[in-house]
Each structure stands twice: as structure tokens, then as C-alpha cells.
Amino acid sequence: MDILWLVAAAMLLIAVVNASVRVLGGPTTLDRLIALDMTIAVTMCGLALWAGTSGDSTVVSAIAAIALVNFIGSIAVARFRVRDDQR
Fold first, then answer.
1. Global pTM value
2. Quick one: pLDDT at residue 60?
3. 2-86 maps to which CATH number?
């Protein structure tokens, strides 16, 4: 069972690296926004993986709070961003 947790953690690490590459080299701001959302989602999955591994359920409220803040932040950025072709 420990190997399964390690494989899941390795897959999450690969996802974060891929998202970081997109954040640094994204051609548009919306690409960067999606990559940041993906990074936060992978962080939430990592917290859930840790909670499943340790049996500690106190991080569930933190996962919910991160999800709500991420949603509000994404909506704000998408609403008030300047188009890339107007610069």
C-alpha cells in the first residue's frame, strides 16, 4: 500500500512541474491562469493524499477553504484582466 501512495505523490509532483512550466512559458494570461488553477488543484489533491495516508481529517476544512478562495480568485482575474492583444 505504501507503494501506491508513493506513485500517487510522484504523479502529483509531475503535474506540478508541468503546470509550473506552463506558468513560466504560457503565451497568454489565460494559459497562466489555468496553470495556476491546476497548481492549486494539485496542492489540494496533495493535502487529500496526506490526509488519506496519515488518517488525519483536520485538513478537510483547509481543502474546502483553498477551493473557495481559488474559485473567487479565478473569477476576479478572469473578470478584470486586460486582453493580451490590447497591450
1. 0.81
2. 92
3. 1.10.287
